[in-house]
Amino acid sequence: MKQLAEISGKEEKLVIGLMSGTSADGMDAALVSIHGHALGTRVRQLGFVSVPYRPEVRSRLLALAGGDAGGSRELCLMSFLLGRLSVDACHAVCAQAGVQPEAIDLIGSHGHTLWHIPRPEIYLGCSLTATFQTGEASVLNEAFGCPVVSDFRVRDVAAGGQGAPLVPYTEYLLYRSDQHTIALQNIGGIGNITVLPKGGSMADTFAFDTGPGNMVMDAIITRLTNGAQTYDAGGALAETGHAHEGLLSWMLSDDYLALEPPKTTGRERYGTAYVDRFWAEADRLGVSAVDRLTTATRFTAECIAQGVRCFCRPRPEWLIVGGGGSRNLSLLRFLRAALPETRVMTNEDLGYDSDAKEAVAFAILANECVHGVCNNAPRATGAAHPAVLGKVSL
């Protein structure tokens, strides 16, 4: 078993970052070489895999994340199942990169968010915020014999933050510029944006969730195809339809979009209940099947554009799009039309891997944790102060 002091003392480490996103489509694993820490961080990606969940696993994850299914027994079993699936993903990325599993120094695991309560709710007489990620880290310890950092979000919530977004810290380390104000838009299940003001410090960096990313689009195409497709590959189907202005207006009346940052959201807001309401409104307006998907695709773009126009000061000159949504050409077309004064590009345009971005981020966050470096962005999350995020399992 590798000891924490041994790992933190290494100038260069082999680290795996794991991410299971709100779309619940699979486990992402990025293997990176990390040199140094904090502002001296240098990262080289050695491998990336995305291991799809079996349909029955995805179905149960989505049900548990809906809030009305499962119980303590199933939560217990799912936590250890995700631990095992995390091990499988780590072995897969090691094999792809030609790295022996025993060479891994550190693993950072986000786990899977089952419920997120970023704004206070009353529970048993107490006003509480909370967040819950699952995926047992000790299963990874047992398989790899190295420290594992997990459960990153709860420390930020305990410090009065919303526990999200967490990638702004890593984006500042990797993308900051003295020449341009840069925004990074991740489009996973949820969309989130980070703004790095030109020549700014970590304290100047801010971020927030823009609203749904792929989540609503994925749910709609799943319904349209009776489960034969779970996402619109390349935005091809959305390109064949037209956005319905009446339905789009209904979607844009969502009060989340007008909330001032810091703000975060998730499946608890844009999950099955939201899509049911959307479907009923589309029925009422007589919107065709494909136009429902096109409208939802444009809605995601408009959510991002509204966030940029209303809350991004200074306005970004570049918007770098990552995540699965960066592959949706229809979505990118709508986004460029909505933000004509901003250069919209993808991570690939800069030589980065859009798919691996979040998994790489959790490798970096784990590295910062074992060095005892505060790795949240209080201006993004609303936390009262910087904090070291992550629980270390040995």
Which SSEs are present, and which pair or pack?
Layout: H1 4-8, E1 12-20, E2 26-35, E3 42-52, H2 55-65, H3 72-97, E4 106-123, E5 126-134, H4 137-144, E6 148-150, H5 153-158, H6 167-175, E7 182-187, E8 190-196, E9 206-212, H7 215-224, H8 245-252, H9 267-270, H10 272-285, H11 289-311, E10 318-322, H12 329-338, E11 343-346, H13 357-370, H14 378-381, E12 391-393
Parallel strand pairs: 1-4, 4-6, 7-10, 10-11
Antiparallel strand pairs: 1-2, 2-3, 4-5, 6-12, 7-8, 8-9
Kindly describe this structure:
The protein is an alpha/beta fold and 394 residues long. It folds into 2 domains: 4-166 and 356-393, 2-Layer Sandwich (Nucleotidyltransferase, domain 5), CATH 3.30.420; 167-350, 2-Layer Sandwich (Nucleotidyltransferase, domain 5), CATH 3.30.420. It is built from 14 helices and 12 strands. It has helices spanning 4-8, 55-65, 72-97, 137-144, 153-158, 167-175, 215-224, 245-252, 267-270, 272-285, 289-311, 329-338, 357-370, 378-381, and strands at 12-20, 26-35, 42-52, 106-123, 126-134, 148-150, 182-187, 190-196, 206-212, 318-322, 343-346, 391-393. The strands form 2 sheets. Strands 1, 2, 3, 4, 5, 6 and 12 form a 7-stranded mixed sheet that branches. Strand 7 and strand 8 form a beta hairpin. Helix 6 crosses helix 13, helix 8 packs across helix 11 (289-311) and helix 11 (289-311) packs across helix 12 (329-338). The longest helix is centred in the N-terminal third of the chain and has 26 residues, at 72-97. It is globular and about 65 Å long.
